Amino acid sequence: MPDGNLNPLWARFLKKKKDLVARESLAKAYFFLVEAETRRLLARLPLRAYWEKKDDLGSAGVIGLLQALDHFTPPGNKTNDPGRAFEAYARYRIRGQMVDELRSLDFARRNLRKQARSIQEAERKLEVRLGRSPREEETAKALGISLDELYNWIAEINMLNLLSLDAEIGEAGVEGGSWADVLADSKAENPLDKVEKQEKIEQVAEALKDLGDSEQKVLHLYYVETLTFKEIGKILKVSESRVCQIHHMAVFRLQELVDVRRKHGRVYGR
């Protein structure tokens, strides 16, 4: 979050958008949005794309941030305090620019959903037979693929889920202005939304307990301690690529566990 009151700077910039000094100052203040979205996308990229796009995503995000500044007009009820509305709009523009950067990579193969079901079915059968959660190499063997191919499947499935969500956001017409209409009012939180949010938090918290130690540790270091995959690798004494693989497996299994809890309405251990 930006430090200090940026309203005077916003007033100066919105009055005259050719004020490059004000534009640069606001860009620096909101650069944290670029960093956040970069981390969000990098965490989901398959290894090939991770190394290929690692540096490009940040650059694309900066372009998106500058475009957001140039095109932003605060909603009528937020002209005196445009910062919060800008953050929502900027995230949309930043993410959109980054997704454009990723369009050259094929995450939309039609068989990805089928592959996800195949992995889940193989894991369920192995769990019944072994009496424990299967190791990744056991799942790969049951599917008749290499371990590296399993990691690629899971990474691409995770990325497809993320890009599908972004596509839904884009189709909502945010560019046309509806992004401001759906901003939550912090002073009037919907009680039902609050309950649903708490339920989701509890579902994820319970599911986390069923992940392996290394998966839990990677998720904690990445999302709580905000370390990079490279920094986590040094702590765990594994390569950056291996941390990326562990993260992909953790996200896939976490989603699977949460889906089971939501479907059955009770806790299932692995």
What report would you give on this structure?
The protein has 270 residues and is mostly helical. It has 3 domains: 1-105, Rna Polymerase Sigma Factor, Chain: A; 108-183, PhyR, sigma-like (SL) domain (Butyryl-CoA Dehydrogenase, subunit A, domain 3); 189-270, Butyryl-CoA Dehydrogenase, subunit A, domain 3, CATH 1.20.140.160. The protein is 73% helix and 0% strand. It has 13 helices and no strands. The chain is elongated. The protein starts with 6 loop residues before the first helix and ends in a 6-residue tail after the last helix. Residues 167-188 have low confidence and may be disordered.
Please describe the structure with a list of short key phrases separated by commas or semicolons.
270 residues, Butyryl-CoA Dehydrogenase, subunit A, domain 3, mainly alpha, 3 domains, Rna Polymerase Sigma Factor, Chain: A, 0% strand
Count of strand segments: 0
- CATH uppermost class of the largest domain: Mainly Alpha
Q: Please give the CATH architecture of the largest domain.
A: Orthogonal Bundle
Into how many domains do the coordinates divide?
Answer: 3
Going by CATH, the homologous superfamily of the largest domain would be RNA polymerase sigma factor, region 2, helix turn helix motif
Mean pLDDT over all positions = 79
Q: Helical region count?
A: 13
What percentage of amino acids are in beta strands?
under 5%
Radius of gyration of CA atoms, rounded to a whole number: 21 Å
Q: Cα distance, first to last residue?
A: 38 Å
